[in-house]
């Protein structure tokens, strides 16, 4: 079955390897490196139809280096992922997904945290031009746009953050709430035309600040947005111990019972997690999740979770 995965951190791993600060001093080969959960061969083996690739910057980077680090990851997206793998097809606008041919995998560029552009909206517009189609305003810390899920203050969007959401709407860009504070997520729900939670689970089942409470989930569904469940073990079961695929399916079931059966997808966080469920260790094993889902849901519902819900709720062209 086809898979659309709305979050992975392969770009960060590629960058750290190239800089010699991760996995020794040898660059990673996106085509087949064992160090990449989402390498090309694994995406092929797992039936991935579209893979989202996040630009992510560590929050302790000096501000004057953040833009350069972001551009390095964009460059790796173009040179290592697209340039060396002809079957990886850059999704520059949402309609491009419909043009994918048999054997091709769509590649979507996203931004996890507005730190890359600071308060410079010219840089944000440049990211749009480079192909970024989804923007999360924060990682877990606070920045100039909003407070993240790990910021004790728990504030919402700043005036700058609200302007970014407005620009996202104008350019048919998702605004991602997965790392936002609760108040920030409510601000997004009020303002965003295209909200998404690219990699979050149900807080009712696992009380972690990165997960969404039931009211947030219901608001996302009412706004025609998507919640894409994440494979990070501490977001599935408190303590992150003895977690299996069946535990992840419970989150999908919970969101479905809240009215979200048409609004649930997959946001693995592969290459951003360091512990795995049995039989779901990398992108080549996505079909093991599908097999488990088929025990609990209809074939139509499983197809929805795997890829069809996303296709039906991606930002539509304005007429």
TrEMBL record:
Pfam families: Peptidase_M19
SUPFAM superfamilies recorded: Metallo-dependent hydrolases
Gene Ontology molecular function terms on file: metallodipeptidase activity
Highest taxon in the source lineage: Bacteria
GO biological process: one example: proteolysis
Cited InterPro entries: Metal_Hydrolase (IPR032466), Pept_M19 (IPR008257)
PROSITE patterns: RENAL_DIPEPTIDASE_2
Protein name: Membrane dipeptidase (Peptidase family M19)
Organism: Planococcus massiliensis
